[in-house]
Amino acid sequence: DLPLLLLRPTMIYGCGQDRNVSLLAALAERTGFIPVAGRAAGLRQPVHADDLAELAVTAIVSENPVNLLSEVGGGSTLTYRDMASRIARAVARKSRLISLPPGLMFLAVSALSWLGPWRGLNAEMVRRQSTDLVFDDSALREALSYDPRPFEPTSADFKVPEYARGLQLPADRSDSLTE
Question: How many H helices and E strands in the chain?
């Protein structure tokens, strides 16, 4: 029997390549606000890419191979609203949250999703702001002593680190919000 560790991370952030946390940061930088739908009370566990990399290395070098299928969360469980607020505080431009009625935000996102820099947005993103997307990863934490950082992003988390720029594959980013 070969051991198999299959990791299913929740919302990954760090290195500026994600399409969730970094997208919100880019929006805040560009507009000075992050819109949220209503209370935006759905729970999240954002996990930093560096914590996932460290976890993978720990699993590879472990003397006791782990046979496990596990979700992987970050060190904080917080509402979507609180997550967005922390992102707004981390960007260079003074930014704030704007609460919109979910129906209005649903319509706005549906319309904007057809325009260049907003492609990739969808109305489902609005609905999920009030849905809990958290998982129990206690077995993984125990098996590999996994202790991820809390969600306290900095502006560096929204950019590709200098050392990694040469490792990127070329891509047409002309319609990206992160330019």
Answer: 7, 8
Say if residue 179's pLDDT is above 80: no
Question: Is residue 118 over pLDDT 80?
Answer: no
**Which amino acid makes up residue 32?**
G
pLDDT at 167: 72
Q: What is the mean pLDDT of the chain?
A: 89
Q: Which of 21, 20, 23, 27 is nearest to 98 (CA)?
A: 27
Specify the pTM. 0.86
Question: φ and ψ at 50, to 5 degrees?
Answer: -65, -35
The alpha carbon of 20 is separated from its chain's Cα centroid by a whole number of angstroms, namely 5
CA distance 113 to 115: 6
Dump the DSSP string for 14-65: STT--SSHHHHHHHHHHHSEEEEETT---EE--EEHHHHHHHHHHHHH-SS-
> Could you tell me whether strands 33-37 and 43-44 are parallel, antiparallel, or unpaired per DSSP bridges?
unpaired
